[in-house]
Amino acid sequence: MQVYADNAATTQMSRTAIDAMLPYMETFYGNPSSLHSVGQRAKEGLQTARETVAAVLGCQPNEIYFTSGGSEADNQAIVSAALNGARKGKKHIISTAFEHHAVLHTLKKLEQQGFAVTLLDVHHNGIVTPDEVAAAIREDTCLVTIMYANNEIGSIQPIAQIGALCKEKGVLFHTDAVQAAGHLAIHVKEQNIDMLSLSAHKFHGPKGVGVLYARRGIPLTNLIEGGAQEQGKRAGTENISGIVAMAAALKEACDHLEENAAKTAALRDKLIQGLLTIPHCALNGDPEKRLPGNVNFCFEGIEGESLLLLLDDKGICASSGSACTSGSLDPSHVLLAIGRPHEIAHGSLRLSLCEWNTEEEVDYLLQEIPKVVSRLRDMSPVWKDLVSGKKQFLL
Ligand SMILES: *Cc1c(COP(=O)(O)O)cnc(C)c1O
């Protein structure tokens, strides 16, 4: 049996998205900037996609900028807000310690350029409190950037409350909604979101295409200079087939949001309950305020990497930490941020489900994972020390 349980890393494309994409590769392949009819058909597709995305997010089409993905959107949002702030002498940014590296590394770079960055505590459950955001805001704060839902542990942040308080204090609010888009309700106006990033390949769309929503009146800084595409804010011939497919995938996901979430969450909860019967393990992230598909555990006495390899032998595709950090031996910055010690953070497993997973697959996971965990523990010197009492159990 093959079980794909790594949907937070990327998803399989939907039939709808592929069907939307093909005509823009085969027939309407023109450059949207061309004056002839083939180009104009592509331009119409682009405009329709922009209207679709805007309607789903609750904004105007001219507030949508297509990018190469979530990372680019995060970079552009943060750099733009920082440079706008600096022009007014405001060089302080608030974020959290468990953001995606597209945010954290951009902030690190800005710090080297003289910006001050406050990273808020996310507590054991992986959730920031609006009070702490409010308390961190200073006279010179130009941006609050906090993710909607965490990609590793799935915890959902109180985005609307943070948006409301940022509006009240006159500070820009950006959210990395890459894990939320297509899975959780988004309405940028009602939630007082000034800027938002999303990425198509996290909701059954293609890779290499995303969206930056930026409220009218927020000046954007170009990361890529060239032609006048995307209102002059993002140069380069548009990835038209990808953009059209993204709009189709986003609309499909949002049209079925509640039923998909209910189905996926039922599978998630069954999986969590089953895995909790393994001795000396712990669920990471909030038990309730979490993404419908996210399951994340730490198992004491084992290495996440070995766990992944043995699971792969059983046909199970999972991850430990984020896709970007696996391959390196550093423990996940997210698990460290929620207070897991290094040795525990090393033994983590993320299973991320979608509405296409089945109950049979969950049963298979619950049959195989406990076996693999005990096999690894039997071989582990650390586990021996724990069992003999030479070391104290932490979980
Ligand atoms: C996947 C992801 C990104 C990066 O998106 P890309 O389109 O792969 O660049 C950013 N933030 C979060 C939370 C993600 O999960």
Mind explaining what this structure looks like?
With 395 residues, this protein is an alpha/beta fold. The chain has 14 helices and twelve strands. A seven-stranded mixed β-sheet has the order 2-8-7-6-5-3-4, sandwiched between helices. A three-stranded antiparallel β-sheet has the order 9-10-12. Strands 1-11 form a two-stranded parallel sheet. Helix 9 (257-275) packs parallel to helix 13 (359-379). The longest helix is centred in the first third of the chain and has 21 residues, at 37-57. The protein starts with a strand and ends in a 7-residue tail after the last helix. The mean pLDDT is 96. It binds pyridoxal-5'-phosphate. Pyridoxal-5'-phosphate (PLP) binds at residues 69-71, 74, 100, 102, 147, 151, 176, 178-179, 199, 202, 210. Pyridoxal-5'-phosphate is lined by residues 69-71, 74, 100, 102, 147, 151, 176, 178-179, 199, 202, 210.
The number of E-state strands comes to 12
Percent of sequence in beta strands: 5-15%
Largest sheet: 7 strands, mixed
What letter string, H or E per element, gives the SSE order? EHHHEHEHEHEHEEEHHEEHEHHEHH
Secondary-structure-derived class: alpha/beta
Overall body shape: globular
Taking pLDDT < 50 over at least 5 consecutive residues as the criterion, the unreliable ranges are none
Would you identify the CATH architecture of the largest domain?
A: 3-Layer(aba) Sandwich
- The count of helical stretches stands at 14
Helix content: 40-55%
Query: Can you say what the CATH homologous superfamily of the largest domain is?
Result: Type I PLP-dependent aspartate aminotransferase-like (Major domain)
Intertermini distance: 31 Å
Number of domains: 2
The CATH topology of the largest domain comes to Aspartate Aminotransferase, domain 2
Widest sheet, order of strands: 2-8-7-6-5-3-4
Q: What is the name of the CATH class of the largest domain? A: Alpha Beta
- C-alpha Rg (nearest Å): 22 Å
Bound molecules: pyridoxal-5'-phosphate
